[in-house]
Amino acid sequence: MKTNKILNIILVGALSLAACSCGEFLNRPNIDNYNTSNFYQNDEQCLQGVNYIYNSPWYDFQRAFIKIGEVMSGNMYWPSSPYLTFTTNSTDEDLVNMSYSLWAVNGHCNAVIRNILASEGPSQAIKDQTVGEALTLKALAYFFLVRSFGEVPIVHDNTELLNSDYNGIFKESKENIYEYIIYTLETALDKLPKKTSGWNNRIDYYAAEALLAKVYLTRAGVSGSLNTEDLQKAASYAEDVILHSGRSLTPTFSDVFRLAPSVYNQTGEPLISWMWTCEGSQWTRQNTLQSDLFGEGFSETGDLWGGWGGPSYDLMLAFGADPLESPESRKNEKDSRRKATCMMVGDKYEYFWTDKGGFDFLRYLYDETYANCPTDKQFQGPCGAQNVKHLYGNSYDHESALGHKPDRMAYTLPTHILRLSDLYLVYAEAKLLTGDATTALTYVNKVRERAGVDPLESVTFEDIWNERRLELAGEGDRWYDFVRVSYYNYDFVKAQLEGQKRNQVYSYGEAASQYYESGTWAPDPSVTFYNSDAQGPKITPEIFYLPISQEDVVNNPNLLKPAEPCENVRETYKYNF
């Protein structure tokens, strides 16, 4: 019987765990098929057995991670993208790959948990820890699924599904999916250790608790109005992480996104990350985002084509940095997040091209003796900037930080999914919405202080909304803020999206080239200008739910039907351990 893609991937997870030989803490042996009879025999093997679900199953989500989180939200301009115009259909390659990836995460987590529970050699402490890690990553996959597609099936156990009508499975309601995520994370908390120092990017109790806080904040509005109890739980879980985990904000914002573990994890700010590696020959365990996010010549591996997209005009304006104004106007800017997010004319970076004394953006564009591969002297960024987050630099930067070179579309830079600053803003929003504006103001200002901007004297919901955008821009999260607020305040998000400047700036390269040659910023406004004539996308409630893959629907028409929710999630999908 032919299975649909969702369930085909789940069954793969149940029947065979293709090994990924990963580097550093992600070490895993090269064994094509293994289970408790030939693996999971000791603590080290148990740890290795869970490592790959920090990377490989997530690989095919990388491109949609940016297109959904950043392009749909108006943070990034990607020419001719259906994600920019809210016209993505059920056969879109990136959407299909995203669905494939998230169901793969779920299937592999289920299989790993089953194998660990059946193993006899490892200590109970390590078995608990690794099951807790897998449960957290499973919950994360469902968190992406419900916020992307709305109602989806719950596949609790691969083996049980093999013995049922797996092409007849029905969707669950959003409320039930959020309850399942919460139940899964609560189960993980019962097993994970509490670490207060020496973080190594493995998920611990506080990382799972931070995700639980964010889930509660998101679920708070799913019924159509804000649920005070959910907001209080979001605040309570966030507060516990903030007060007791030992974590703090990395002093320099840009350091969070650098290569060396000693830099990006110096304070434990990254709570949950996709941990990539490019050592060895196994495909899918590597980061490939730099290829999609920057242009030719930035590295030597010949895998860069992303220069024709970039941060949106609207995002730059949100930072107070208008690309149509002179670069001299930005010399005294306070917000360090702008430069660490949007690379604009006049910017230089000491942490890229360190073998050349740093990276000079204009020289890269217009000095053929400076760039690794000339770019025909074209400024590619369609709105006047290029992306910065998710870039590692050149081969020298990679090797000097990690001791090994990158490969074509293969680098080791981690992708942070949940950071402490995000949690500070979750905490601030939950506290504000439950009447504690004083605490909310304190934590918003902690985020602003690290960025170098002046503290606020009072705080509103819109202040936190805007702060989340500036802090997390480029990190695949912004669209999901629109989704969660659309649950209970559709008019607000509709107005926000309709008010964005989502189009391109014409002929920006002419002004940039002239500035490089003459040192004078004097663009011709009849040539270089923002395209204000283009009509923005129509905003309707339907845009907040992506279509389910056509392949899945063809093989299981029930996925087109309304959800048939169970009455008790925790009994129907019970964790018997």
Largest sheet: 2 strands, antiparallel
Distance between the termini: 32 Å
- Tell me the CATH architecture of the domain at 5-203 and 546-572: Alpha Horseshoe
Rg, Å, rounded: 23 Å
Helix content: 40-55%
Question: Could you explain how this protein is built, in words?
Answer:
It is a single chain. Among the domains are: 5-203 and 546-572, Serine Threonine Protein Phosphatase 5, Tetratricopeptide repeat; 289-411, no CATH class. It contains 24 helices and ten strands. It has helices spanning 5-15, 43-51, 62-71, 82-85, 93-118, 124-149, 158-162, 174-189, 205-219, 228-244, 261-264, 289-293, 313-318, 336-339, 361-366, 395-402, 420-433, 437-451, 461-472, 478-486, 490-498, 508-518, 550-555, 569-572; strands at 76-77, 270-274, 310-311, 342-343, 348-349, 359-360, 386-387, 415-419, 505-506, 529-530. α10 (228-244) packs across α17 (420-433) and α17 (420-433) packs antiparallel against α19 (461-472). Residues 9-32 have low confidence and may be disordered.
Summarize the structure.
With 577 residues, this protein is mainly alpha-helical. It is built from 24 helices and ten strands.
List keywords for this structure.
Serine Threonine Protein Phosphatase 5, Tetratricopeptide repeat, 577 residues, two-stranded antiparallel ribbon, mainly alpha, 5% strand, globular
Question: Could you give the topology of this structure?
Answer:
Layout: H1 5-15, H2 43-51, H3 62-71, E1 76-77, H4 82-85, H5 93-118, H6 124-149, H7 158-162, H8 174-189, H9 205-219, H10 228-244, H11 261-264, E2 270-274, H12 289-293, E3 310-311, H13 313-318, H14 336-339, E4 342-343, E5 348-349, E6 359-360, H15 361-366, E7 386-387, H16 395-402, E8 415-419, H17 420-433, H18 437-451, H19 461-472, H20 478-486, H21 490-498, E9 505-506, H22 508-518, E10 529-530, H23 550-555, H24 569-572
Antiparallel strand pairs: 1-3, 2-8, 4-7, 5-6, 9-10
